Amino acid sequence: MNPVDCAYAPPGEYVKDHTFVFHEGWWHVFSISGIEGFCHAYNGNEETISWSISRDLVNWQMRGHVLHASQREGAFDQHEIWAPFCFHAEGRFHLFYTGIVHPHRPMEYRKIGHDHRFDWRGHRETQGLAVSTDLTDWTKVSDVASGLGIPGRDSHVVRDDARGRWLLYSTGPRRDNLSEAFVSESSDLRQWAFLGTCARFPDFPGGTAVTTESLTVMKHPLNGRWIMLANHHYALSNDPTRFPEEAVRTYDLSHQGRATEIGFAGEIIQHDGRWFRSGVIGPRDFWKLGFTEIGWNADGAFHILAPSRMVG
Questions:
Q1: Is 94 strand, coil or helix?
Q2: Beta-strand pair 216-219/193-202
Q3: Which of 7, 152, 153, 285 could form a disulfide with 182 if both were Cys (CB 3.0 to 4.6 A apart)?
Q4: Are the beta carbons of 50 and 30 closer than 8 angstroms?
């Protein structure tokens, strides 16, 4: 099986922000649970996380839903659950997520997609954490009211061994046509200190998502520097807490002389010795999970070896 043949969404759902864990010979994907054809402004939508498993990244089995909205007044995740990020450390799995308070979602019976009115009154986004030993039974461990107590959404966590710390990257606000990325640090994955803005990426013409949503930060496999990979741009740095604006570049998305697409909310994984970037691809509110096979460039990000079959 070739992962570029993947075109998956759980039955009746779309795939959006997602995360992968490889465990006991299986790939697990956790993704925002959205009902196909409905945007997240609808009541009942994006209120839990979908869980699916696969051995080959092509054939997936939907196994259910985990990590639900609290539905408790005063909780930081009262109404919705967004943007999971999962990894194994210190003997357990850690699932970071964004809890949403969204008290004004007008009832809409028509299926009108993103034409549904979005009422921002009282809307609040807060990062939280749940832990598990088996990827199925999750316990929320962050503060009920304040979550992790740091700003931003769409958590991404990496280990900075040189400083003996964990770094958490998150999506900041959009100001002056620039999307900000935040960074925070921790020694134990529970208590976090906000360090500030670490990157500012420009808008991308025709882009389907905010540039700094669902970031990936890692050590570049070829040159060993830190690389921040966003929806449309990337930046290299020797300092994982600062990716200067002058270092920001756009991806080269050409393949065999033609422009192609990699989708948004991407994650970077390695499977059978090959590198892939996942992406959310397809019509709005009918998105599916796809994979692009990539090769790394020593002086930049990556080049496309094989595009997702969903984009040709």
A1: strand
A2: unpaired
A3: 152
A4: yes
Spatial contact of 10 and 52, defined as CB atoms under 8 Å apart: yes
253 Cβ partners below 8 Å, 6+ apart?
Answer: 259, 260, 261, 262, 304
- Domain residue ranges of the chain, discontinuous segments joined by +: 3-110+121-306
- Could you tell me if 46 and 35 are in contact, meaning their C-beta atoms sit under 8 angstroms apart? no
Separation of alpha carbons 213 and 46, rounded Å: 16
CA distance 116 to 109: 10
Q: What is the mean pLDDT of the chain?
A: 96
DSSP-derived 3-state class of residue 2: coil
Residues 6+ apart with CB under 8 A from 7: 281, 288, 289, 290, 308, 309, 310
Q: Would you mind telling me the total number of residues written for the chain in this entry?
A: 312
Provide the pLDDT confidence category of residue 176 given band limits of 50, 70 and 90. Answer: confident
The average pLDDT across 114-119 equals 89
How far, in Å, CA of 211 to CA of 157, rounded? 18
Q: Which pair of tokens denotes residue 23?
A: 């465990």
pTM metric for this prediction: 0.96
Question: Exposed/middle/buried for 238, CB within 10 Å: 0-12, 13-18, 19+?
Answer: exposed
Structure token digits, residue 51? 């869980």
Compute and round to an integer the Cα radius of gyration of the chain: 18
CA atoms within 13 Å, Cβ hemisphere of 105: 18
Cα–Cα distance for residue pair 36/39, rounded to 1 Å:
8
The fold of 3-110+121-306 is: Tachylectin-2; Chain A (2.115.10)
CA separation for the pair 9, 284 (Å, rounded): 13
Q: Are 152 and 173 in contact (CB under 8 A)?
A: no
Q: Measuring CA to CA, which residue among 261, 283, 298 is closest to residue 4?
A: 261
Write out pLDDT tens, residues 3-18.
999 999 999 999 999 9
What single-letter amino acid sits at 126? T
Structure tokens at 116: 């549904």
Task: Quote the pLDDT of residue 312.
Answer: 74
